[in-house]
Amino acid sequence: MKQTLSRRSIVKTIGLVSILAPLSTLIDWSKAFAQAAAKQLIDLTGKKRKDPVNKAAIAIATGFSYISDAKKEKHVGGIEKASAKGTKFPVASQFCHNCQYAPEAQKTKDGYSCLLIANVLVHNDGWCKQWMPRQDA
Ligand code: SF4
Question: What's the CA-to-centroid distance between 6 and ligand 1, angstroms?
């Protein structure tokens, strides 16, 4: 038996897909945001936070020469980098808030969720030598 799709059923299917696809993206973003919101800001001094999560994050951050305030502290090991579009980023313009490893979708009121330093938030004006410009920069 030959089955044919009616124009109406095709339009309905396309409509359903166009509603569900953005919805799943929205759900992914909200999950990522909820995970980021559950994280706490890294404490490099280890005085305010003595938990193992912070200790593990300090070990990684130290290896990357992370600093929590790149406006005041020295960028040890920093070099000028350029985006794919050719925009140059001198070391002084590099911060966690414009790093590709800190997606804007994972920004919280306290800081950013960094893809390289897991389970903690990094400071908005933080920096480390892994800094890379965002794709759209
Ligand atoms: S990788 Fe980027 S976001 Fe993560 S700590 Fe370094 S500069 Fe900040």
Answer: 53
Partners of 41 in beta bridges: 121
Comparing 51 with 21, the larger pLDDT belongs to 51
Which domain covers residue 93, as residue numbers?
Answer: 39-122
In this model, does residue 1 exceed pLDDT 70? no
User: Is the per-residue pLDDT at 29 higher than 60?
Assistant: no
Residue 133 falls within a domain, yes or no? no
Domain count, the chain: 1
Compute, in angstroms, the gap from residue 114 CA to the centroid of ligand 1.
6
User: Which one of 131, 132, 134, 135 would you pick to mutate in the ligand 1 pocket, going by the greatest count of ligand atoms within 8 A of its CB?
Assistant: 131
Asked, for residue 88, whether it belongs to a domain, the answer is: yes
Nearest to 69 by CA among 125, 108, 112, 122: 125
Q: How far is the CA of 122 from the centre of ligand 1 (A)?
A: 7
Evaluate whether residue 82 is within a structural domain. yes
Task: Pick the more confident residue, 130 or 18.
Answer: 130
